[in-house]
ABC transporter related protein (Coriobacterium glomerans), 590 residues
Amino acid sequence: MFRRFISYYRPQRLLFAADTVCALVMAGIDLAFPSILRALTGGLFTRDSDAITGALGYIAAGLICMYALRCGCRYFVSAQGHVMGARMESRMRQDLFDQYERFSFSYFDRVNSGDMMSRVVNDLFDICEAAHHVPEWIVICGTEIIGAFVILFLISQTLAAVMAAVTLIFVIVMVRQNLTMRAVYTDNRIKISEVNSQLQDSLAGMRVVKSFANEETERRKFYRSNDRYLGSKESMYKVMGTYQTTSALMTGSLYTIIVVLGGYLVAQRSMSPVDMATFALYITLFTGPIETLVNSTEVFQKAIAGFRRMDEVLESMPEIKDRPGATDLVVRRGAIEYRDVSFSYENREISERGHARPVIDHMNLAIAPGETIALVGPSGGGKSTTCALLPRFYDVSAGAITIDGQDVRDVTQESLRRSIGLVQQDVYLFDGTIRDNIEYGRPGATDEEIADAARKANIHEFIESLEDGYDTVVGERGGRLSGGQKQRIAIARVFLKDPAILILDEATSALDNESEEAVQDSLEHLAENRTTVIIAHRLSTIKHADEIVTVEHGQVVERGTHEELLARGGTYARYYRMQFEGVRMVGKSN
Ligand code: ADP
């Protein structure tokens, strides 16, 4: 983990070196000033007034040069130091994103998207704050503390030793307080995230809240989490107050010691008054950096925790990878075969018998080129999973799936997924224009090709009727369009992609009857000359399929044309009767 962290510094090594040098120069100048003043008050300023006036010009020039240099270094450390941190953050963000893209579906089943977001946003921010501040603080504060102590020790060993002992006691107390503060901060973060999720839940579900007239319940829930957050903030400010008081007490005690003990030493003639004043000047150079270093442990720890979380992601291996030497899939006719396929989800509960029950259980299914088959059966029977195995969203646990005789695990994922078009119940449109969303099917397609795809999907006229036409922005997740319109844009996308194989997973289930008809038309057109697998819970929508396959408990239990299956009087006939007699809906109803 440490090596990986250092690797992010490597491309920035010049900047890092320059940043460190500037930090050193700044610390050196800060340390030099009280000594310069000491030299002047102890030597030059005791001479006659003409000599003093004559020297002031040189002193002014020297100080201006010194502080101009310090300002230059300050600018470099502030600006370029942050730039370095931002560059590192940006590279880490890219690496995380690339890694997320490599992961397979099972990863996204397991990991919560809020958690992924927080790794990319909050954790990286913490890491990069530390990446540039902590080394800079260590250089500046370390040099100032050690330098100040050495200088003071050379002036008066007794006073420096007493000061160091008192400072040490305060540092121990402050570190302990800092630990309490960290615990309170953590609690504060938890409480604010509770407020956020409560707010998000209530706002997102506001229609339900209002329709049940449950505003009062929601208000109570929100107030409760808001009060908890307030309580945590109050504790935080109390602890913060105590910490700052301790720090002020440390500075005050050191000044008092200097005046009392220093005064005594001056009275005893073991120290000059100028040296005593120099001590006082060095106090802030001593206490300020100590406070910064104590605080930096928090930043550092947050960064370590964040980097550990990032490292965890970068270390995880994607479950589905291209085999070495995998070739591109060549679809000649589009024949699909499931040969004795079994599959279980990793995160599936264990069945009562104590064995993980396979979702797909020794399934055999052959689909002829260009054929349209419909999968029907009870909800949870394994229809969607059957389809998800074809583009290798998950890998089979046993058996094999082939397309024109090529095992899907032997070909590149990219060529495999380019050959398969998927239309699902939930349409995801990206926030952008209608054109962008259709073009997603084949990046780089011309406007004419996009319009042609839209025409085939029966959506061209609607798009043209909009004020901005293809440039209409669809809004977040396509929020400005109806379900049917979104679905037809998704279909246009697949027309543009022009895959040899098509999967329609409950593509019309979420639509009302009228939109369903329009979409159904486009889908039938889309399925022409492609091997197509349809999952639909409304049996009326699959009557045109060449064959119907009933899937139950992950197995094919029946197969035939609509008429054949009705005549057979088996499971399909039962479902069909149930639906049309209106007794109960079959298929996926959740
Ligand atoms: P169908 O499409 O026939 O309704 P599915 O293939 O969606 O059935 O689901 C089959 C079984 O697999 C169900 O018991 C379901 O709960 C489970 N399942 C589906 N998707 C996942 C998943 N991503 N992780 C774990 N279990 C899942």
Notes: Residues 109, 345, 347-348, 359, 377, 379-385, 588 surround adenosine-5'-diphosphate (CB under 6 Å). The radius of gyration is 36 Å. Residues 228 and 528 are 60 Å apart (CA to CA). Residues 1-156+298-319 form a domain with the ABC transporter transmembrane region fold fold (CATH 1.20.1560.10).
